[in-house]
């Protein structure tokens, strides 16, 4: 008889802050604390303006959500030291993140820059704007975003490079061939047998290129 998986044993679960700290011998270094800013410092602004990719985390009635957002570097604009502007470009129209923000305005963002091992983290509160003047500010290829997130910044700091270095995220030598993993069409057809996954995959690249904005 197979033994129970070790993760089912909860007798060693950490349930309070004191026990948690006991498992970590080192305390945060001074640099880990004073790197925090309550607004976008000019040096942190340079990271935001160089980033073509950000992960947006939100929380709603159904739980947590993270959503990738990407465009040309600087697509997230720094309006002032306490305000970021994030256009909502065309996507899958699930609007999970936006519905969450209606419920809870707290958001967290992680900015990634290809080749740079540090990650910039921002916490704040967002509201959803459909202001025509604001949408016009983000026109690309003659197309406006559906809405723009106006994010009030509460905390900004950089994450050290260890995670990126361990993952070798920017190392071309470890890039995977797309064919090694299931395609979107294969996944969809497996989940819904009546779906034509092969046709979906065949049209995917052209469709995405045509509907980026």
TrEMBL record:
Name the SUPFAM superfamilies on file.
Answer: FMN-binding split barrel (SSF50475)
Q: Where is the Pyridoxamine 5'-phosphate oxidase N-terminal domain?
A: 44-160
Pfam family, any one: PNPOx_N
Under Gene3D superfamilies, the record lists: Electron Transport, Fmn-binding Protein, Chain A (2.30.110.10)
This protein's superkingdom? Bacteria
Q: Which InterPro entries match?
A: Pyridox_Oxase_FMN-dep, Pyridox_Oxase_N, Split_barrel_FMN-bd
What is this protein's name? Answer: Pyridoxamine 5'-phosphate oxidase family protein
- Natural source organism: Roseateles flavus
Q: What is the lineage of its organism?
A: Bacteria, Pseudomonadati, Pseudomonadota, Betaproteobacteria, Burkholderiales
């Amino acid at each position: 008889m197979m033994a129970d998986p070790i993760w089912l044993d909860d007798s060693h679960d950490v349930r309070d802050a004191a026990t948690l700290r006991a498992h970590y011998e080192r305390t945060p270094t001074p640099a880990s604390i004073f790197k925090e800013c309550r607004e976008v410092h000019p040096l942190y602004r340079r990271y935001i303006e160089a980033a073509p990719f950000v992960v947006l985390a939100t929380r709603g009635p159904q739980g947590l959500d993270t959503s990738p957002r990407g465009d040309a570097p600087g697509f997230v604009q720094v309006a002032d030291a306490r305000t970021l502007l994030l256009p909502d470009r065309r996507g899958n129209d699930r609007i999970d993140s936006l519905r969450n923000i209606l419920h809870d305005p707290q958001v967290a963002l992680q900015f990634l820059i290809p080749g740079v091992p540090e990650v910039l983290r921002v916490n704040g509160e967002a509201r959803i704007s459909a202001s025509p003047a604001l949408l016009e500010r983000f026109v690309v290829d003659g197309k406006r975003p559906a809405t723009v997130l106006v994010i009030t910044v509460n905390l900004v700091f950089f994450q050290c490079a260890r995670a990126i270095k361990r993952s070798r995220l920017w190392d071309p030598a470890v890039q995977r061939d797309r064919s090694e993993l299931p395609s979107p069409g294969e996944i969809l057809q497996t989940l819904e047998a009546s779906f034509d996954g092969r046709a979906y995959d065949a049209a995917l690249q052209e469709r995405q290129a045509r509907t980026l904005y």
